[in-house]
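Thread title: Can someone regenerate the structure for this chain?

I was given the following input by a collaborator and told the matching structure tokens would be attached. They weren't. Posting the sequence so someone can regenerate them.
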Amino acid sequence: QVYLAESGGGSVQPGGSLRLSCAASGYLYAYYCLGWFRQAPGKEREGVATIYQEDGRTYYVDSVKGRFTSSQDNDKNTFYLRMNSLKPEDTAMYYCAAHSGSCFSDMAADDFPFWGQGTQVTVSS
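Best answer:
Regenerated them for you:
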């Protein structure tokens, strides 16, 4: 069992920044993919970014490329999503999720068996 806990959400004005954290614990695979997802009210859950724990390789959905950066601190089993130039359409509940092995560019939520509880991000003036 892998346990994930997000933190760092909040309310910011358009153009602002936030950094989300995801702490992983429990039985961690030797190599695993950590994904960031978001879900706005009335919308489907959307993959935002992934990072492969073994080599740090990342994927991003087009709408966040150049604004969001996924990173990791392997010593602490902690992952980060730095979000810059935030827009109102980035408003959503953000989740981190994990599965064993390499990441896939399609970021399908069904591939991830382990999920955190989510942290709310609100971008509004």
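The radius of gyration is 13 Å.
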